[in-house]
Amino acid sequence: MTARLGKLVKWSAALVVTLLVVAQFIPVDRSNPPVQSDVQAPAEVKAILVKACFDCHSHETRWPWYSRVAPLSWWINGHVVEGRKDLNFSRWPTFDFVTQDLLLREIDKQIENGKMPPRSYAVGHPEARLKDSERQALLDWVRTGQSDDSDLMY
Ligand code: HEC
Question: For position 13, what pLDDT does the model report?
């Protein structure tokens, strides 16, 4: 390595470290707002929702230590913000009938397709990987709650 290249590498590394340090000071909202009204579900179903979905779809997020380290914190926070926006079990009973029905159908679809919980989450949370029996319990729950198509006029 020429001396000039060595210098470049050294300065680049210093720059990256500086940016990482500065990044830690950008505030990230890791708040858990009060639970307005929790989702009602049989204990077995609730336990599955809590361990596999609640970190992103409720106000009871368990923020891990690495959610305090930028840039990971931005990525995790984005999941929680987006997840709560789409589906929030901590506000569930406040949704009207049509909204609940739509959400049950969405959950059905996501579980059926194996899209939730996201794969990147399951890597760090092996307990959240749904067993067949757990997938089935969730599907049974959402399907019991759904209306017949014929009942609804959107
Ligand atoms: C790591 C965070 C995370 C976990 C854990 C998670 N989700 Fe999600 N979920 C998201 C994000 C982010 C979105 C919105 C963006 C998207 O659709 O990918 C979402 C969207 C959804 C949607 C709405 C899809 C739509 O298109 O409207 C449903 C339904 C859903 N998730 C169900 C679940 C269920 C059920 C579980 C548990 C078995 C779960 N999620 C676990 C992050 C998560």
Answer: 97
